């Protein structure tokens, strides 16, 4: 009987030891974690104003009508009154770097034909681009450049405080009047906008 009592006492002591361990650390914790990636979402381009035809989208195409480009005598009719204005929705959750680049630096004849005296094969232009708030205010500043016939790339940055106010990106393409006759053919220029989150 005495032996049995010893075993029973030992088991009781073991049970009390387990309860004491739980009493020393009564709180269990669950840690819930996640990560929000830095994102910038640029939507498709829409034309806000300007002549000619337009196909909207992420890779949009604006086409001047022939009568927008030259008169019946072949002299240039394109000038500041023929400006094109585009908007694309833009939403970012962090600081951003944005840049725009041009393929040619002019609205230029696609063929490599040289222009004879008295003729031209390109229009230069003023180009401005900037992010805007929903109410139409420029976020940061609005850079404007004048093309000179060589491709251009410009980059800019905005802090997260400014970036959170952006609603859309706007670009204005404004041709500079050309006093000469224009060589016949297809003319083109490509403007590329890139927006990247920065941490």
How are the secondary structure elements laid out?
Elements (H helix, E strand, L loop, with lengths): L1 H23 L15 E3 L3 E4 L3 E3 L5 E3 L2 H4 L14 E9 L3 E7 L4 E3 L9 E2 L1 E2 L1 E8 L11 E3 L6 E6 L1 H4 L4 E8 L5 E2 L4 E2 L2 E7 L2
Parallel strand pairs: 8-14
Antiparallel strand pairs: 1-5, 2-5, 3-4, 5-13, 6-12, 6-16, 7-9, 7-15, 10-11, 10-13
Please report the total strand number as a whole number: 16
What's the alpha carbon Rg, rounded to whole Å? 33 Å
Query: Which architecture name does CATH use?
Result: Sandwich
- What is the level 1 CATH name? Mainly Beta
Domain count: the total is: 1
Low-confidence stretches: 1-16
| Major sheet | 6 strands, antiparallel
CATH topology: Jelly Rolls
Structural class by secondary-structure content: alpha+beta
Q: What is the succession of H and E elements?
A: HEEEEHEEEEEEEEHEEEE
Describe the oligomeric state of these chains in a short phrase. single chain
Question: Could you say which overall geometry the principal axes of the C-alpha atoms support?
Answer: elongated
Q: Please report the number of helical segments.
A: 3
| Mean pLDDT figure | 88
Could you give the distance between the termini? 76 Å
Helix content: 10-25%
Name the beta content range: 35-45%
């Amino acid at each position: 009987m005495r032996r049995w009592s010893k075993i029973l006492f030992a088991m009781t002591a073991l049970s009390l030891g387990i309860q004491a361990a739980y009493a020393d650390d009564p709180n269990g914790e669950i840690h819930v974690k996640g990560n929000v990636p830095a994102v910038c979402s640029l939507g498709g381009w829409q034309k806000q104003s300007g002549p000619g035809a337009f196909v909207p989208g992420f890779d949009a195409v604006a086409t001047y009508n022939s009568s927008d480009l030259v008169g019946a005598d072949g002299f240039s009719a394109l000038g500041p009154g023929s400006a094109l204005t585009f908007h694309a929705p833009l939403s970012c959750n962090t600081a951003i770097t944005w840049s725009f680049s041009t393929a040619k630096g002019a609205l230029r004849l696609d063929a490599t034909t040289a222009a004879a005296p008295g003729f031209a094969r390109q229009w230069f232009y003023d180009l401005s681009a900037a992010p805007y708030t929903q109410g139409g205010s420029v976020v940061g500043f609005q850079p404007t450049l004048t093309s000179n016939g060589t491709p251009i790339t410009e980059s800019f940055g905005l802090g997260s405080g400014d970036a959170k106010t952006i609603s859309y990106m706007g670009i204005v393409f404004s041709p500079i009047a050309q006093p000469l006759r224009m060589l016949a053919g297809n003319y083109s220029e490509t403007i590329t906008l890139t927006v990247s989150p920065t941490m």
